[in-house]
TrEMBL record:
InterPro entries: ModA, ModA/WtpA. This is Molybdate ABC transporter substrate-binding protein. It comes from Anaeroselena agilis. Belongs to the bacterial solute-binding protein ModA family. CDD domains: PBP2_ModA3_like. Gene3D superfamilies: Periplasmic binding protein-like II. It comes from the Bacteria. Keywords: Metal-binding, Signal. It holds the Pfam family SBP_bac_11.
């Protein structure tokens, strides 16, 4: 009887050990984690260089940091006007990814053979607005208020900055010739990037800019957004990304694009109220609008 009890005890112990091993295997999925810690990640020590329009600067800085913490890959970012950073890429023949602030400059990059067109992905969407100082001390309520005498306005340089190109399109298609001249008389500055356009309001060097609705969330203590009328919002912009033909690690560059499209990557853009879909942008505007496209800058706006 004693031998029988010992025999069954051995069998039960073996079964319990097997179950424990199965549970441990199930928890790990039967394979190693796909998200190893930076210190032991196989990608640690590698790096990516992203040439980006400053329309994505605050969220892209967050996303790049999160990608680095997750994979160990160092992401170097070069921000500026979309056209200007594209020129830097071409002159330096370097960079793994191009991330302009609008479709206009991505089309230029594709025509110039700087990116692999088949790798282009749309990350988020943007809508133009008027941005004023917090509290709106000049009581600017409409686009035509920007033509009032004494109002100091800024737009980004349309030759190299996406939001400047959009601003000129709005001015040209919305204002009468007299209103256009009055607006141009009020221009105090042509800024060099989206970041510098928003900063012009934060620093109170101007009363208003034609910018993006997200500028308010970049600096909510100092910037307020005034929505344009539905008829004044001509296009929904989007921020695309594509792999540069100068990259030496196309697979790693694709991993960063995939990360930006993941829920983890999108969280950085949601924090600053970027639109995740065209439908979200349409809901904000109140009417449907074309998405993306290109605008040809009139000659009279060149060399500003």
């Amino acid at each position: 009887m004693i031998k029988l009890k010992s025999h069954w005890s051995t069998i039960i112990a073996a079964i319990m050990m097997s179950m424990a091993l199965l549970v441990m295997s199930g928890c790990s999925g039967g394979k190693q984690s796909s998200n190893p810690a930076p210190n032991n990640a196989p990608l640690t020590g590698k790096h990516l260089m992203v040439f980006a329009g400053a329309a994505s600067q605050p969220p892209l800085e967050l996303a790049a940091k999160a990608f680095e913490q997750k994979t160990g890959v160092k992401v170097d970012t070069v921000f500026g006007g979309s056209g200007y950073v594209l020129s830097q890429m071409k002159l330096g023949k370097k960079g793994d990814l191009y991330f302009p602030g609008s479709s206009d400059f991505m089309e230029t990059a594709k025509r110039d053979g700087v990116v692999y067109p088949e790798t282009e992905q749309k990350i988020v969407y943007l809508v133009n607005s008027i941005n004023v100082q917090k509290g709106n001390p000049k009581n600017i309520q409409t686009l035509k208020d920007l033509t009032r005498p004494g109002i100091r306005v800024a737009i980004a340089n349309p030759e190299g900055v996406c939001v400047g190109l959009y601003a000129v399109e709005i001015i040209e298609k919305t204002f009468t010739p007299e209103e256009k001249q009055a607006f141009r008389d009020n221009i105090a500055n042509y800024t060099e990037s989206c970041e510098k356009t928003a900063t012009a309001v934060s620093l109170k060097t101007v009363d208003a800019v034609i910018g993006w609705s997200v500028f308010q969330y970049w600096d909510p203590e100092k910037i307020e957004t005034i929505k344009l009328k539905q008829s004044e919002t001509l296009r929904i912009g989007y921020i695309p990304i594509a792999i540069s033909k100068y990259t030496e690690n196309r697979e790693l560059a694709q991993q960063f694009i995939d990360f930006l499209q993941s829920e983890e990557g999108k969280a950085a853009f949601k924090k600053y109220q970027y639109f995740m879909t065209p439908a979200e942008a349409v809901a904000y505007i109140g009417e449907d609008r074309p998405v993306g496209g290109e605008y040809t800058l009139p000659k009279e706006w060149l060399k500003k």
